[in-house]
Amino acid sequence: MGKTVLAVIIFMFLVVSSVSSEEITYRKHIKPIFDSKCIACHGANSAPEYYAFKEEQDKWLAKGQGMRMDTYSHLIFYTAWPDTGSIMRRLDDGKNTKDGKPGNMYKYLGSTEEERQRNLEIFKKWVGNWTLKRWAEITKEDMNGIKVKY
Description:
Elements: H1 2-20, H2 26-37, H3 39-42, H4 50-55, H5 57-62, H6 72-79, H7 86-91, H8 113-127, H9 140-144
Helix pairs in contact: 2-8
């Protein structure tokens, strides 16, 4: 009986390890989260491109619209360059910041804290180097750590 229990524990460990080590991709993991949690405000049908949003930010915010982020290319813009770290700053839970405040979009990652943490973890694994730094602050090593697989 002891060997059976041990075998089951080892099997469960291997299953959990393989799932947690699965490569996170935009298509399989990020897009479904984005489509269910973010597209209403950041989708192609209603959201402006970055520079159009910046030109008339108050107008877009009054409409409850953010910048367009509904494609892989758009999300890379807010992850790596040119708006480096923006997606991370907005989705972050605040646990590693000086003031402890979550980013302004963290609350939209889920309807419960458990769901928000689960979705945040998926985003963190997808990004790789979860940095809150901006382009002027980021190092080559920081940038090399960003994965964002398609």
